[in-house]
Design brief:
alpha/beta, 5-stranded parallel beta sheet, Rossmann fold
């Protein structure tokens, strides 16, 4: 598989205000230094949102499931209406991008304890029945794909913190990509915490912890980009 990097950002903030965007950009710079001639694709879910699902998407998806999870190449033969065709036209490019990537980089700020709606819309659409399953072996086509999820949280949600149980971001991403077939050793969840320490009064005094968390995330991402 070619060393293609698919870079997905989901923060609603501009780069200057977004920790997740700055961190994904750091990873990309280091990765491109190592893979100078490799293909790189970026998808910004804030500036180019993915359309939410409609009834035509779910109807087509159920038809594909009844056919035994037909692979993408066989889906066009199952389409029965212009609405279903539109949904498939919106979906197939996203599936193709994800299937083509060796490394997937995802910027994920924490919104209300979970992931942004923009990212969830991408997840909902790209996860079409049968899209990532080898029709011959039944194995996942993403078993050799590496996923680097860059998490940014305004507060502190790490192990032992009072809000540890409020983190639905980490377990959700681990469950989602794991269910797609990404193996645990190829799934990297890297978080920068306390990113709003400069604007939230109740976080005053934790600036050193915020700086330490950000520096650790930067170092981990740079090293990872230079070795994969």
């Amino acid at each position: 598989m070619p060393a293609m990097l698919l870079h997905v950002d989901s923060s609603a903030d501009a780069t200057a205000d977004s920790v997740s965007r700055r961190l994904t950009a750091r990873f990309v710079r280091a990765w491109r230094e190592r893979h100078r001639t490799a293909e790189y694709r970026r998808r910004d879910l804030a500036t180019t949102p993915v359309a939410p699902l409609t009834a035509a998407y779910t109807t087509l998806g159920r038809r594909v499931e009844r056919e035994g999870f037909a692979p993408p190449a066989k889906v066009p033969a199952l389409i029965e209406s212009p609405a279903e065709q539109r949904e498939w036209d919106l979906t197939l490019p996203l599936i193709t991008e994800l299937r083509s990537a060796r490394t997937v980089l995802v910027g994920v700020p924490m919104y209300n304890f979970s992931v942004p709606a923009a990212l969830k819309a991408w997840i909902d659409r790209v996860t079409f029945p049968g899209a990532f399953t080898d029709p011959d072996s039944g194995e996942s086509l993403l078993s050799r794909t590496r996923v680097v999820a860059v998490l940014a949280r305004g507060g502190g949600y790490g192990p032992g913190t009072p809000r540890e149980a409020y983190d639905f971001q980490t377990p959700y991403l681990r469950a989602y990509f794991g269910n797609l077939g990404v193996t645990p050793d190829r799934l990297h969840l890297i978080a920068a915490e306390l990113t709003r320490v400069d604007v939230l009064p109740h976080l005053a005094g934790l600036e050193h912890l915020a700086a330490r968390s950000l520096a650790a995330a930067e170092e981990t991402l740079t090293e990872l980009a230079r070795t994969i």
